[in-house]
Amino acid sequence: MLLQFRVLVINHFGFRLGRVRFKNNIIHMRMPNFLIVGAAKSGTTSLYRYLRQHPDIFMPEWKELSLFIGDSFGPLHRAKKPYFYRKAFSKVQNQTAVGEASTAYLFDEAAPKIIKKQLGTIRIIIILRDPVDMSYSLYNHQLRKEGETIENFEEALAKEEDRQADPEFKKTCYGWHANYYYHRRASYYHQVKRYMDTFGKENILVILFEELANETLSVVKKAFRFLGVDEAFIPDIKVHNPAGSILNVPMFWKDTGLFLKTFQFVFSRNLIKKVPHLIRNIGRKPPQPLNEAAAKKLRKRFYEDICHLERLIGKDLNAWKS
Q1: Fewest CB within 10 angstroms: 63, 140, 219, 246, which?
Q2: Which stretch of 25-29, 76-80, 106-110 has the lowest confidence by average pLDDT?
Q3: What does the alpha-carbon distance between residue 246 and residue 72 come to, in Å, rounded to a whole number?
Q4: Which residues contact 216 (CB under 8 A, 6 or more apart)?
């Protein structure tokens, strides 16, 4: 008879994260050994879709699980209970690489240490986009699909410090308050440095959005090598989660974890809160490019951060500076 017993895993927050079943010394429940941690609006959904096509990689249908953050508010669609997180990985079989993608992890200051405590020294993938483009894309996402009501990007930027300093804003805004910090979210240096300090440079793969867009297959193969899986596999390459769409309906019938995500959202006050934003955006035209004067002004604000980041990651970022 097979020896079976269960070991309870107690997580950082003091509750049960999951049950690990052993049969003949083989662990049958697996937790992630790699994460895509961000940045938001930088191609993480596309990379996530490419990687999960690989037969030796498992990534759940539920993107943005965001369990391992220190912010008590957290993203709207996060896994609020360890049970939900555990369920998302219930279909793991014999894949070499097991991971998930949550862009909140890059910005949240506590996330690297929580992740390391829960998952050990794992592989981390970070995608970075030109900060001006990223911040404007995040703003348009919030304006079109979430709770942003300021119709002018520069005015929203000017409001950022007040929003950060206002504890009521964190409580009352629709979704995660950090998604309204357009400049701070795109200031990458300290965010990336936290991961390098915690996991070591050898366990971090930094990809530029421009590289992913222009050399997609080459970048995906590089990610395969980083994760230790066969790079000869060719995924179906196409753009996922393009900017400009108003509403995406999750295919919750395909996956238990995704069903729980949808259930969690529908049976909460968040769905009711989202309706006015959806109505407000019916018929809204696609966003226009950021005007040159505003882009130039914002690029100056990012300049010092870009210089520090360039030295940290060892990549030429001159295109972001002008």
Answers
A1: 246
A2: 25-29
A3: 27
A4: 50, 237
- DSSP code, position 178: G
| pTM for the structure as a whole | 0.84
Q: How far is CA 313 from CA 10, 74, 200, 235, 321, in A?
A: 35, 28, 12, 27, 16
Mean pLDDT of 41-70: 95
CA distance 107 to 180: 12
Q: Say how many domains are in the chain.
A: 1
Asked, for residue 12, whether it belongs to a domain, the answer is: no
Evaluate whether residue 177 is within a structural domain: yes
> What average pLDDT is seen over the chain?
85
- Residue with token string 């309870």: 8
| Angle, alpha carbons 81-35-262 (nearest 5°) | 40
CATH number of the structural domain spanning residue 298: 3.40.50.300
pLDDT at 239: 65
- 16 located within any domain: no
**Residue 19 domain-assigned?**
no
Question: Which residue type occupies 208?
Answer: L
Look up the domain containing 40 and give its range. 31-321
Which residue shows structure tokens 């000869």? 232
